Q: What sequence folds into this?
């Protein structure tokens, strides 16, 4: 399998965490393909129409994209415990994945605004509104019990919090959210998360 990859992408990180946790990582060849909305990159193997990463070319030649799709595909290739539960817990796992992905979408949009758009065109109110979304989502997570396993919801949330630390180090999200912070400190010690930490 070939995976379009960047070590800084939290969506790629989700895929790599699942690949490590399921023992599939050695079957995946990573293709460096940094993503930028201003320079859509469709060169090389496993390029997807939206030019986003991750994208996975399976051994059967099928192109898959969007991290939830790729993660669920990988989860069907191993015999261990499922990261996408079938029965009880499925909707909670998918909802948590959606919440983490939504936080990432808001955060990445703000990062693009602040790094790609010329300073005089940056829209502060809009960035603040996006930050308001991810803060409300973090507040909702503080009210949840997350120490109930390790499925795709937990994987996504761990990668999400790691991304906030990586790209928004001044966010101080832990201050008013001690339970979420404690959960993250413990889950971040898993080898799959340690091995996929963003550079720097
Ligand atoms: N919903 C997608 C989001 C993927 C995404 O936004 N990836 C970013 C990198 S972190 C990207 O490729 N950005 C380039 C672009 O938006 O053109 C997923 O879950 O895989």
A:
């Amino acid at each position: 399998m070939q995976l379009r990859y960047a070590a800084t992408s939290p969506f790629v990180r989700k895929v790599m965490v699942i690949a490590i946790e399921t023992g599939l990582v050695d079957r995946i060849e990573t293709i460096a393909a940094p993503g930028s909305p201003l320079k859509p990159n469709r060169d090389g193997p496993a390029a997807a129409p939206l030019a986003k990463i991750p994208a996975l070319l399976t051994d059967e030649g099928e192109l898959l994209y969007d991290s939830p799709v790729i993660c669920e595909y990988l989860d069907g290739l191993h015999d261990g415990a499922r990261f996408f539960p079938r029965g009880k817990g499925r909707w909670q796992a998918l909802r948590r994945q959606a919440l983490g992905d939504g936080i990432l979408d808001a955060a990445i949009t703000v990062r693009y605004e602040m790094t790609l758009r010329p300073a005089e065109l940056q829209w502060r109110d809009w960035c603040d509104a996006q930050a308001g979304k991810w803060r409300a989502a973090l507040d909702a997570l503080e009210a949840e019990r997350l120490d109930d396993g390790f499925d795709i919801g937990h994987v996504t949330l761990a990668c999400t919090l790691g991304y906030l630390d990586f790209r928004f180090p001044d966010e101080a999200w832990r201050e008013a959210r001690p339970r979420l912070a404690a959960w993250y400190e413990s889950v971040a010690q898993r080898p799959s998360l340690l091995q996929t930490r963003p550079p720097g």
About this structure: The first helix runs from residue 10 to 21. The mean pLDDT is 97. The chain has two domains: 2-75, 90-191. The pocket of glutathione is lined by residues 9, 11, 35-37, 40, 51-54, 66-67, 101, 108 (CB under 6 Å).
